[in-house]
């Protein structure tokens, strides 16, 4: 086996460096070792690949390289043992197909208007002249959208409880103190609700019980005219032609809820950050959106070219998902001139691929125009991963991202509270803004022929 070079530093110390500065750490590793880097975890080599040709081999060499659900076992605490991330083979393929179909076509068109309504309702609650954390407000929007689209719930006691518990269990805690405490040994002690782990497990159990109750009720009142994903799942059959159990349906709900909320909220928070640091970008966006007239059709918004380019550039420069899900070498295979033995872990490094100067010249600069000038392959631009484990809600997340952004920008004037660069923080899956993007509500926006610059600084 000819492993690529990599740092000899102990993995625990590398992890500390990564947590302190994810992008800076990866930039330094790439500069020293190139686009294939080996990180040892005990005796198991994990190879990070940021070369599009190598990534293509990893995603397409399915006989030699598998995307095993067991590699995602760390997420089972939150997604359940029968979530799509944990499944393999025919079951995984069948469940993915069900969920992917649910995130496309008529359902997306039907919920477009509702996304705009929820966005305006929640953003309008921000007091004029008072700072607010954009990430928290956006999470509220995307979680509300996710619960409606996935479960068909809008209001009521169960809706409020699920929303609260989902946020408690899955949301990213922005407190630096809590991030530090989580690294201490006692964090993992389960002493009931008095310990951090015990409290988390209790909340998780409450959430799963509520989701199960909703699945059970939906099955008892099955209605083929409903458009939510849950209604589709309780009527669906598994790969053997049998109805899925309530437990299976419950676990399958978690990933689309997380996809609709987590990735979208993180990307939108970064969007507001970049757009309000670069007034020329904001002004070009507003000019394009304004051309659609007052109260435009959501499906017209999502096809706007510059808005699409801005969203893609957000997902390129600060991807919410830094890595594709890991792959396992099942039989000896060669990738980019390196021979890998059985048991080697291969990971497509999304962030470093998006930072390649040969693909994205001046890659540290926020420049949406690059996506108007060139079409990138699925191995060059992969914000939601790729292959058999590509994010099931990626298309919906981008759809949601465009509508939420267009609604906020066209209706409200916002400004960044601070010009300090926002630091990224990684939680094991998503990379979010550490301070949450503090913004100021200046008031409702009045359409003008020449947009006013609210911020004059540039990077």
Task: Give a verbal description of the structure.
The protein has 459 residues and is an alpha+beta fold. Helices cover 49% and strands 10% of the residues. The protein has a single domain (11-444), classed as Orthogonal Bundle (Cytochrome p450). It is built from 18 helices and twelve strands. A five-stranded mixed sheet has the order 1-2-8-5-3. Strands 4-12-9 form a three-stranded antiparallel sheet. It has a two-stranded antiparallel ribbon with strand order 6-7. A hairpin with a 2-residue loop joins β6 and β7 (338-340). It is globular and about 60 Å long. Residues 172-181 and 450-459 have low confidence and may be disordered.
Low-pLDDT residue intervals, each spanning 5 or more residues: 172-181, 450-459
Principal-axis shape equals globular
User: Biggest sheet, in brief?
Assistant: 5 strands, mixed
Q: What would you give as the CATH superfamily?
A: Cytochrome P450
Please tell me the total number of domains.
1
And the CATH topology? Answer: Cytochrome p450
The N- and C-terminal alpha carbons lie at a distance of 45 Å
Secondary structure tally, helices? 18
The SSE order reads HHEEHEHHHEHHHHHHHHHEEEEHHHEEEE
Rg from Cα: 22 Å
- The oligomerization state is single chain
Overall pLDDT metric: 86
Secondary-structure class: alpha+beta
* Strand arrangement in the largest pleated sheet: 1-2-8-5-3
* Binned strand content: 5-15%
CATH class: Mainly Alpha
CATH architecture: Orthogonal Bundle
């Amino acid at each position: 086996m000819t492993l690529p070079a990599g740092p000899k530093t102990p993995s625990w110390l590398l992890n500390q460096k990564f947590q302190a500065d994810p992008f800076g750490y990866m930039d330094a590793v790439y500069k020293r070792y190139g686009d294939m880097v080996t990180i040892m975890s005990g005796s198991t080599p994990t190879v990070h690949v940021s070369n599009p040709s190598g990534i293509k081999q990893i995603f397409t060499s399915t006989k030699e390289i598998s995307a095993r659900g067991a590699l995602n076992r760390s997420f089972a605490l939150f997604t359940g043992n029968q979530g799509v991330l944990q499944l393999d083979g025919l079951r995984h393929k069948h469940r993915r197909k069900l969920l992917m179909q649910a995130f496309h076509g008529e359902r997306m068109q039907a919920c477009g208007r509702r996304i705009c309504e929820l966005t305006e309702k929640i953003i309008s609650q921000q007091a004029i002249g008072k700072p607010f954390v954009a990430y928290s407000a956006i999470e509220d929007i995307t979680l509300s959208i996710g619960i409606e689209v996935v479960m068909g719930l809008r209001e009521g006691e169960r809706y409020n409880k699920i929303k609260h518990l989902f946020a408690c269990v899955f949301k990213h805690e922005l407190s630096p103190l809590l991030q530090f405490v989580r690294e201490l040994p006692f964090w993992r002690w389960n002493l009931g609700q008095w310990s951090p782990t015990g409290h988390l497990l209790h909340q998780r159990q409450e959430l799963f019980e509520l989701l199960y109750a909703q699945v059970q009720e939906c099955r008892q009142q099955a209605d083929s005219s409903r458009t939510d994903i849950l209604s589709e799942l309780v009527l669906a059959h598994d790969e053997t032609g049998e109805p899925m159990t309530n437990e299976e349906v419950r676990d399958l709900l978690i990933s689309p809820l997380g996809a609709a909320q987590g990735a979208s909220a993180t990307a939108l928070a970064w969007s507001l950050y970049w757009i309000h640091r670069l007034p020329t970008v904001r002004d070009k966006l507003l000019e394009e959106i304004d051309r659609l007239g007052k109260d435009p059709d959501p499906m017209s918004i999502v096809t706007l070219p510059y808005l699409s380019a801005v969203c893609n550039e957000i997902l390129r420069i600060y991807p919410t998902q830094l890595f594709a899900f890991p792959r396992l070498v099942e039989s000896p295979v060669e990738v980019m001139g390196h021979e890998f033995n059985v048991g080697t872990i291969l990971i497509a490094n999304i962030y470093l691929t998006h930072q390649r100067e040969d693909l994205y010249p001046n890659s540290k600069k926020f420049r949406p125009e690059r996506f108007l000038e060139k079409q990138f392959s699925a191995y060059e631009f992969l914000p939601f991963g790729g292959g058999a484990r590509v994010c099931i809600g990626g298309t919906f997340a981008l759809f949601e991202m465009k509508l939420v952004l267009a609604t906020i920008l066209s209706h409200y004037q916002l400004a960044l509270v601070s010009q300090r660069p926002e630091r990224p923080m990684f939680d094991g899956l998503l990379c979010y803004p550490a301070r949450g993007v503090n913004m100021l509500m200046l008031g409702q926006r009045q359409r003008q022929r020449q947009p006013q610059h609210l911020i004059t600084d540039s990077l």
